[in-house]
Amino acid sequence: MSEKTIFQKIADGEIPAKIEFQDEQCICIRDISPQAPLHLLVIPRRVIAHLSVAEQADAALLGHLLLVARDMALKLGFADGFRTVINNGPMAGETVPHLHVHVLGGRQMGWPPG
Ligand code: 5GP
Which of 17, 65, 67, 85 is in Cβ range 3.0-4.6 Å of 10 for a Cys bridge? Predict the structure, then answer.
């Protein structure tokens, strides 16, 4: 059995995190190094390493992650603007090989992103 990812350890309660929401499919936590006043991570309990290896069978789960991201941004008061990001691979800045959706808000975002 391969070693658990850091996000699996958080989901299993082995590493503390500020959990904002959880259900049977995912957890939503505060990022430990926030890049904006709002910086959440929406993480599936089942490991998909990267978006690039997701399969058609993951479509409902991926959709669920986005809807949770949307719901959390609205619930926490960021209806005026928020950004969702999935980094895929080292060139995109992915550091944890367990797919997760960043939810950022609370400051003016630039484009293109860095
Ligand atoms: P990535 O760079 O893979 O797209 O995003 C990984 C994110 O996970 C980073 O924003 C990083 O700050 C966050 N992170 C890494 N380790 C932990 C941790 O132990 N707890 C929490 N809450 N966030 C973490």
Answer: 17
What is the pLDDT tens value at each position of the chain, 114 positions in all?
A: 589 999 999 999 999 999 999 999 999 999 999 999 999 999 999 999 999 999 999 999 999 999 999 999 999 999 999 999 999 999 999 999 999 999 999 999 999 998
Catalytic residue among 39, 64, 98, 100: 100
Query: Is the shortest distance between the CB of 15 and ligand 1 below 6 Å?
Result: yes
Under CATH, which number does the domain 6-105 receive? 3.30.428.10
Whether ligand 1 lies within 6 angstroms of the CB of 29 is answered as yes
Can 64 be counted among the known catalytic residues? no
How is residue 72 written in tokens?
């959390």
